[in-house]
Amino acid sequence: MKERINRRSVMNLMLNNGILMVIILLIIVTGFIEPNFISWSNLVNVLRQNAVIGIVACGITYCIIGGAYDLSVGSTVSLAGVITIISINSGMNEFLAIFLALLAGFAVGLVNGSLISMINGRAGEAFIITYGMQVVVASIALFPSNGLFIAGRVSDGFFKTIGRGYWPIILFLAITIILEFILKDTAYGRHVCFIGTNMDAAKMSGIRIKRRRVSFYVISGVLASFAGILLCSRVTSSNPTAGLAYEMDAIAAVVVGGTSAGGGKGSVFRTFIGAIVLGIMSNALNILGITAYHQQIVKGLLIILAVAMDLWNKQIKERWMANERT
Asked: Of 71, 193, 246, 306, whose Cβ has the fewest other Cβ atoms within 10 Å?
């Protein structure tokens, strides 16, 4: 019996963390090949660059745990950057410009959540609706700039500061801690997990499903906007396609971190780890001479593998439970 329990513990560890272990092994090998890879300055640079994706991933984590997806976050990142830079260039106060960008993310999330809740949509419907919203928001981001890069006329101040130095890393960590606390230690967080596990049972238990589901998407939209603000703060400019494919990178961070792709189980802190490890992996692949195109193939395969391992994990646990009953 004891041997069986130990075997199960090892199996659970491999299924829940196998991909992370492989990536960490790649990072260690790269560190031996190129000693500068593990330097403090390189690690801080990687963390700073991936804080934007990480913040987007934190928002998507709530949607995925709640049993749905949000593919509109990449376009929301682009739109937020365009709104912020155009507003500041027009002479608007930087705090008001940031507020307008966050408001745009709130509106995108509100529309997504309302439409999905209205039709009582599940993961499939959420996927299609948010993909449609991605196209709409991406088009809106192109209008003010005519699809062109916009240089910012930004003076020193709050906006220019938050995207540089250690601030993106600090803000990423702070958002992770707050969302993890809400998920693990509040009734709202338990509702998120319950809805993702069994929406019908959650509804019968008295949870306000529609209101909760709208809130998932509002959180995701606002954090995507905030990530867009940090991105254009770092480069003091905006690009209407800056957030292209961010949704895939964010989903990769979530599932590689160990959040169940089927919903009901996950952790924002594990998403934090997943985003950092994927960022360091990309940096390692650059050092090893792997092109950006091939890196996208690697990320796609990682998502497929993470989903497959999640399904395999569930099947194994169901088999174990069935054997214990007999």
From this structure: 193
For the beta carbon of residue 312, count every other beta carbon within 10 angstroms: 11
Query: At which residue do the structure tokens 């599932």 appear?
Result: 255
d(CA 258, CA 65): 11
The three-class DSSP label of residue 237 is strand
Can you read off the two tokens belonging to residue 63? 């949607």
pLDDT band, very low/low/confident/very high, at 2 (cuts 50, 70, 90) = very low
Residue in the structure block whose two tokens are 């400019």 = 237
* The one-letter amino acid at 97: A
Give the pLDDT confidence of 236-247 residue by residue, as tens digits: 888 888 888 899
How far apart are the C-alpha atoms of 265 and 319, rounded to whole Å? 19
Among residues 36, 107, 48, 18, which one has the least CA distance to residue 306?
Answer: 18
- Identify whether the C-beta of residue 175 lies closer than 8 Å to the C-beta of residue 53: no
- Residue 132 CA to residue 142 CA, distance in Å, equals 16
Q: Are 16 and 270 in contact (CB under 8 A)?
A: no
Tell me how far apart the alpha carbons of residues 216 and 119 are, in angstroms, rounded to a whole number.
16
